[in-house]
Amino acid sequence: xxxxxxxxxxxxxxxxxxxxxxxxxxxxxxxxxxxxxxxxxxxxxxxxxxxxxxxxxxxxxxxxxxxxxxxxxxxxxxxxxxxxxxxxxxxxxxxxxxxxxxxxxxxxxxxxxxxxxxxxxxxxxxxxxxxxxxxxxxxxxxxxxxxxxxxxxxxxxxxxxxxxxxxxxxxxxxxxxxxxxxxxxxxxxxxxxxxxxxxxxxxxxxxxxxxxxxxxxxxxxxxxxxxxxxxxxxxxxxxxxxxxxxxxxxxxxxxxxxxxxxxxxxxxxxxxxxxxxxxxxxxxxxxxxxxxxxxxxxxxxxxxxxxxxxxxxxxxxxxxxxxxxxxxxxxxxxxxxxxxxxxxxxxxxxxxxxxxxxxxxxxxxxxxxxxxxxxxxxxxxxxxxxxxxxxxxxxxxxxxxxxxxxxxxxxxxxxxxxxxxxxxxxxxxxxxxxxxxxxxxxxxxxxxxxxxxxxxxxxxxxxxxxxxxxxxxxxxxxxxxxxxxxxx
Amino acid sequence: xxxxxxxxxxxxxxxxxxxxxxxxxxxxxxxxxxxxxxxxxxxxxxxxxxxxxxxxxxxxxxxxxxxxxxxxxxxxxxxxxxxxxxxxxxxxxxxxxxxxxxxxxxxxxxxxxxxxxxxxxxxxxxxxxxxxxxxxxxxxxxxxxxxxxxxxxxxxxxxxxxxxxxxxxxxxxxxxxxxxxxxxxxxxxxxxxxxxxxxxxxxxxxxxxxxxxxxxxxxxxxxxxxxxxxxxxxxxxxxxxxxxxxxxxxxxxxxxxxxxxxxxxxxxxxxxxxxxxxxxxxxxxxxxxxxxxxxxxxxxxxxxxxxxxxxxxxxxxxxxxxxxxxxxxxxxxxxxxxxxxxxxxxxxxxxxxxxxxxxxxxxxxxxxxxxxxxxxxxxxxxxxxxxxxxxxxxxxxxxxxxxxxxxxxxxxxxxxxxxxxxxxxxxxxxxxxxxxxxxxxxxxxxxxxxxxxxxxxxxxxxxxxxxxxxxxxxxxxxxxxxxxxxxx
Lengths: 488, 488
Prior knowledge:
The structure is a homodimer of 488-residue chains. By secondary structure, chain A is an alpha/beta fold. Helices cover 42% and strands 19% of the residues of chain A. Chain A is built from 18 helices and 17 strands. Chain A has helices at residues 10-15, 53-59, 76-85, 92-103, 109-121, 126-138, 163-173, 192-196, 206-216, 231-239, 247-260, 281-297, 319-330, 338-354, 363-372, 375-386, 420-430, 464-476, and strands spanning 5-9, 23-28, 31-40, 50-51, 68-73, 150-154, 178-182, 218-222, 265-272, 301-308, 316-317, 403-408, 413-418, 439-442, 449-450, 455-461, 480-484. In chain A, the strands form five sheets. In chain A, strands 4-1-3-2-5 form a five-stranded mixed β-sheet. Chain A is elongated, with a radius of gyration of 27 Å. The interface between A and B is large, with 41 and 42 residues.
């Protein structure tokens, strides 16, 4: 920001209560000057202040001159963080100072930890969540796309669930703009970015992304390509040691990216279940309320769809297997996973109604029609081609792991339980998401009747060793629990 | 602790939710092994696990083997920190896990920040403060000295106030054991360790300290020499960015060191004033209550003496000037600072009564007698000699800064205000505490009548440049405010 900078020895500066980023007043002989203080641990000797040439040349300061140094102000952000820790309500200016200093790297990880701690220990009002969202959206890249810009967001935790890849071409075909950015898997066997990458590259410069949208009304790219709400990454890093994400932080993080992307209509998919991020309905309703409150302040029309998560959505787990599911739905394949199609069509229908493309009650039918007519697949082909993939790919041409092992039912019965956590674990053992061709295909769903020797699931791996690992794990873990029909 | 250790790539480990220090289970071929996971950012490639020779030799693991890794347990300490942040009450085992992991460097600065944050944002019960104190005392060095061990602690913030150096020889002369450890100045112009260092070295190995006490019943050493409650240092470092110390943290930090030192009787000097750590009486009473509650649980008899802090104690500010004050009191010099003598005698008297050396109401007289008889000075001489200083030093032989400048009253009047903050600032400008001979001597006290041209204070420095700085600062800052007697 053009301010003068002085460099202090960290240990010494801390003793004098100077923080990195403080504005200090330097005085020597009859002159004075304000500057920002930054730290070094080695380059400056005790009792010395480091100056850059711009200062010592301009002000004729000589080595050996005695400089006097006084703290004029501590970063507003530190004061604001303490204030929040002590339970006070923060203003927009305070929230913005925190986020600004996080983005400008003026706060250390330890200082950011104090901020994250406040969201565990203190209540945030709706107004504060709005301020925080606004500050996070404003301190990064902003998209301003022509047309009616819409989006959908799934709160993570549910395997499969590649609804975005089905919805994007349906929505774009309706004339709305859907600039979908997605993440890679963190602890799951596949994120939407990992799955889309099986079909086409997902890392593109912003100029290309804008071109995709101009030519095709949509994209499916990795979120890291677009620098939306960059404070989020640093906050996430500071909160990782705890292994728990405060829900307020999650809501703000999602909404700030939507605001920065200029979204006007938004559908949020909120799977609820004991192993999901949202464990029960009470919390789901509170999260819904907050999403709606923040959306309203930004003029975003949002609908939250709460659903019970009992089993994965789709048949495949792992990037290539999930990509095949998506293609099967878009290409109307006879083996397409009906649950993925239904959920995608339902979410797309809501979004069409929300954005006024379809009358209330007719969105789903419209989405289904776009899908069935082949319009959605046409749109997806263009998307794949624009992003640099092979647009002629057929679902059954998706390459899967060369090593394959099928598992069969040991008796007649009914599938009573599918263990989502075990599925994730086995899929990761098989190599997903780094080994894109690895994963699990589920032949049966909850409630399905099975007969002895029916195939229940198939494992795919790229190496024998990984397959062996998974097989061994399966000796102790049941992905499927089949109740014998004699007892059921 | 003898556990096997595996080294993981930090970025990868974080993705899998593995924390530094987690216990993980390694499985390969038909074997398994538990180990602690630690991080590196460079030495291990993605997808690899680093093993030390002790593991791969013993278990015959070959490069290329596939290892499977599962988190068995997250450090209890992290769970406990989250629990406290969420407002729960912690048990002794939980507190101890946190402090243990801080001492063993299993928690990063950022993780410790979350713990410090909890003491800003959450209530700590007396039991929790006790647990914390106990855990901090138990995870470091412990002294166990023969005899009745006593101590005195001044809660910082008041200039001068070198009562410890007067009290220690008085108390030791009475037959009690007083193993005084002190800190160096952090933001003030002198700490007791800095001042004592003018007379003798203060950094000694524990074995020497024990010898001093065996031979002379006392010592005056730097606290860093004795590793009492080592968690404290790391906690302080994590809380520095905020520039504010939670009072609970301060109380626990003081008490844990007293417990580790085996103190049985304790007097706490609590100066209260707008610029002190304890700003008002209400807070002082709450702090007193907590000191007493914790002391009681450890069987320590403690007395807290609350006093109003309006001006520095003693005449000198800066290590050498403060050392001269102490010697003048101990040697019965005609120019000795009476306030320092009175306060020291009062505190010593309380301690003598508390420890049963004097009857109630007669402690002060006893302390005064030990001082007046020269017994205290004899004890101090031996202390100086044992710690390696010149025991024959006379108060007026203390060397002061060679450059000296006296300031005079401009009119007749009464001293109405002495600005403690300005005194500290000017003393630091003059070079204290690093330049031990620099500082300020006050010729007048609050309420003293002054006549035009009376000396009011004298500055001492080791360099002309620093003297000039201070003089210039004094053009704008008043250390003394003298009200003209004509108006008052």
